[in-house]
Amino acid sequence: MSEERVKLRIYGMTCNDCVNTVSRGLKNQDGVLDVKISLKDGTGEVEIDPVKVKPEELLKNKVFEKPSHYKATLVDQ
Amino acid sequence: MNSEVQKFDLMILGRGAAAFSAAIKASELSNGEMTVAMIGTGPLGGTCVNVGCVPSKYLLEVSHSVFRPEHPRMAGILTTRVKYDFLEVMDGLRSYVAHARDSKYVRVIENYSNVKLFTGLGKFVDKKTVMVSDSDGNDIALVSGSNILIATGSHPAIPNIEGLKETGFLTSDTIWELNGLPESVAIIGGGAIGLEMGQALMHFGSKVTVIEALDSLLPQTEPEIGSAMKKLLEEEGMNFYLRARISAVSSSGSGKSIDVITHKGKEKVEVQEIIVATGRQPNTQYLDLEAAGVNTDSRGQIVTSESMKTSAAGIYAAGDCVSKKMFLETLAAREGVIAVSNMFGEDLRIDYDSATWAVFTSPQVAGVGMTENEFSKRNGSCSCRVFSLENLTKASIMGETEGIIKITVNPNNNTIVGMHIMAPNATDIITEGAYAVRNGYTIDDIIATSHIFPSMSEGVKLAAQSFIRDLSKMACCVE
Question: ipTM beyond 0.95?
Answer without folding.
Answer: no
